[in-house]
Amino acid sequence: MSAAAIALLRRCALLLLLGSASGVSAAPEEEEAAAEREGAPGGQPRELPSVVFAILARNSQHSLPYYLGALERLDYPKERISIWCVTDHNVDNTTEMLQEWFTAMERHYRNIEWRAEDEPSSYADELGPKHWSNERFEYVMRLKQRALNYARAERADYILFTDTDSILTNNQTLKLLMAQNKSVIAPMLDSQTYYSNFWCGITPQGYYRRTADYFPTKNRQRVGCFTVPMVYAAFLIDLRKGETANLAFYPPHPSYTWPFDDIIVFAYSCQAAGVQIYLSNQEYFGFINVPVKSHQTLEDERINFVHLVLNAMVDGPPMSLSRHVYLPPKHLTKIGFDEIFLINLARRPDRKQRMLSALSEMEIDALVVNAIDGSALNSSDIKKLGVDLLPGYYDPFSGRTLTKGEVGCFLSHHHVWKEIVERGLEKSVVLEDDVRFQAYFKQRLLRLMDDLEQTQLDWDLIYLGRKQVNSEDEEPVEDVRNLVVAEYSYWTLAYVISKQGAQKLIDARPLSKILPVDEFLPIMSDKHPNEDYKKYFPTRDLQVYSVRPLLAYPTHYTGEDKWMSDTETSTIWDDDSRKTDWSGSQKTLKDSRVTSGTSGHSFHGSSRDEL
Predict the structure, then answer these.
(1) Nearest CA-CA partner of 366 in 416, 321, 403
(2) Which residues form the Glycosyl transferase family domain (predicted)?
(3) What are the pLDDT digits (tens) for 26-48?
(4) DSSP string of 275-316, one letter each residue
């Protein structure tokens, strides 16, 4: 057997090692060329392909610690990785962070070449740090071309371009992409919205074109490795393939007439060279931040990224900070409230940790309240607490009576209301431990409280997250932005409550006529449709409002893989042997008026936005 044939077999073995699922191989002449370049002495393990990571960083201090943390954790030999990096036009600490990280990591990587160009701090024709001017586009194209030239000069096998707000949380990403054996391939990244790092259609003029494939691909209703006309933010180029030799970012192709934008220029270059671009959504690879509009600020971008970090905590895998970049400790506050309560079951430490991490990201200090675990109570314990069922109560959807989990949930909230009254807390936030926060949660909540202060609105409870049961319009509150009078609603996952409101709820003496807490609150505001229930609570003057749009949603809904309810799937309240035999009620289904990806972001017509 010839040396070339042996090398070819070793090359195939490498693809198998990397987990290839595509079954597609390169042309024989490309295999042979690769084998000759990567040949190893007989009997010796072959080195994995060499890779250049191209990093362009500008005003990235908000995302860099997570971006660099993801690079550190990639499961790929660092001695096979070279890093080419330029940071430019910064007004934050991006340069200092990179300097610190490169100093700590330079001995681990094959080679590191980087340069900082902080002066000037802006482009002459840009309107702000998030504005993409022609001068900025051209400069970025030149930098990407320099990175590509560097990788070719180093005879690297691959070059990986990743934006610093694209976080590869899957540490197998590099191997998985290589195993597909494509000339240009991108890992599909998830975001706070329907935005991602690919287009499914492009017009003859180089603009985005809607197709029927985008949403099924983004939502993983179809899974695979697909040809697409455009990828950006994170993609891998196989430099060993002859067809990639003519790919370029700058100057644009001589016949180029499309928009002057680096990602569109590259897409055209692929088209002109006959190189197919691929997108893989076969795994969850990581996350991409939704870009802010050109008139927005670096603080807006930071808040956007915080929201992405929070989403990653829920959807997973979560982002991890670099071990080699110093970050000052966060200063946590009650953000103007007397207390922020976090209700958590002791047997759910994972939920507590996620919620505390999410609140810490927003610099919010919460007090953890140990929830009463209804499933740990037997029927005699419940009766000793003075708990008795509201006569005639049955779940409106399943027909069952109260569960122990629902008893525990009510007792937990009741305990918080008592503490509010006993401590004289004028305004508090109550959170359960399964909350997905929306973008600008803290900022929008603070603005709401300012508006309430200005208008002197008489309020007792304000839903921050809920499920509106009926479809009728709700009355907007005059002079208070994004606030409505709450009609019949479910869920108690997040709300603001006043001392006056807590006192009203306690004075109703609900434990002797208990029902689910999210049925009790509409009764107390006189919004519940069941007149038989309401007659047991003659004073029903709770002033209840809701933010709109909502600031919080459940992390998961009935039918989703990670859905689990400690309130609805437990034994019946007064019968230790009778378990509920269903997987969730209408209460925990997603509201049909809420679409996946709802996040508080407004979509905009940038060429970088899929929508």
Answers:
(1) 416
(2) 338-520
(3) 444 444 444 444 445 555 668 89
(4) PPEEEE-SS---EEPPPPPTT--HHHHHHHHHHHHHHHHHHS
Distance of alpha carbon 383 from alpha carbon 46, whole angstroms: 70
For residue 168 the two structure tokens come to: 């590869």
pLDDT level of residue 5 (50, 70, 90 thresholds):
very low
DSSP assignment of 69-116: HHHHH-SS-GGGEEEEEEEES-SSSHHHHHHHHHHHHTTTSSEEEEEE
Q: Which residues contact 109 (CB under 8 A, 6 or more apart)?
A: 78, 79, 81, 82, 83
How far apart (Å, rounded) are the C-alpha atoms in residues 17 and 27?
Answer: 20
Q: pLDDT tens across 115-131, in order?
A: 999 899 999 999 999 99
Q: What is the residue-wise DSSP string for 208-262?
A: B---TTHHHHHTTSS-SEEEESEE-SEEEEETTSGGGGG--SSSPPTT--S-S-H
**Which residues neighbour 467 within 8 Å (Cβ) at sequence distance 6 or greater?**
489, 490, 491, 587, 591
The angle at the Cα of 407, spanning 403 to 410, to the nearest 5 degrees, equals 135
Q: How many helices (H) and strands (E) does the chain have?
A: 16, 21
Quick one: tokens of 561? 């893989």
Q: What is the pLDDT of residue 401?
A: 80
Residue 226: other Cβ atoms inside 10 A: 16
Residue of 113, 138, 149 lying closest to 248 (CA atoms): 149
Please return the burial class of 133, using the count of CB atoms within 10 Å of its CB with bins 0-12, 13-18 and 19+. middle
CA distance 196 to 319: 17
> First CA to last CA across the chain, in angstroms?
54
Structure tokens, 229: 């006309």
Cis peptide before 251 (omega within 30 of 0): yes
Model confidence band, residue 217 (pLDDT cutoffs 50, 70, 90): very high
DSSP string, 480-517: STTEEE--SEEEEEEEEEEHHHHHHHHHT-GGGGB--H
**Distance, C-alpha 571 to centroid of its chain:** 34
In whole angstroms, what is the distance from residue 251 CA to residue 257 CA?
A: 12
Alpha-carbon distances of 428 from 319, 364, 439, rounded to whole Å: 30, 13, 21
d(CA 466, CA 191): 23
d(CA 542, CA 527): 10
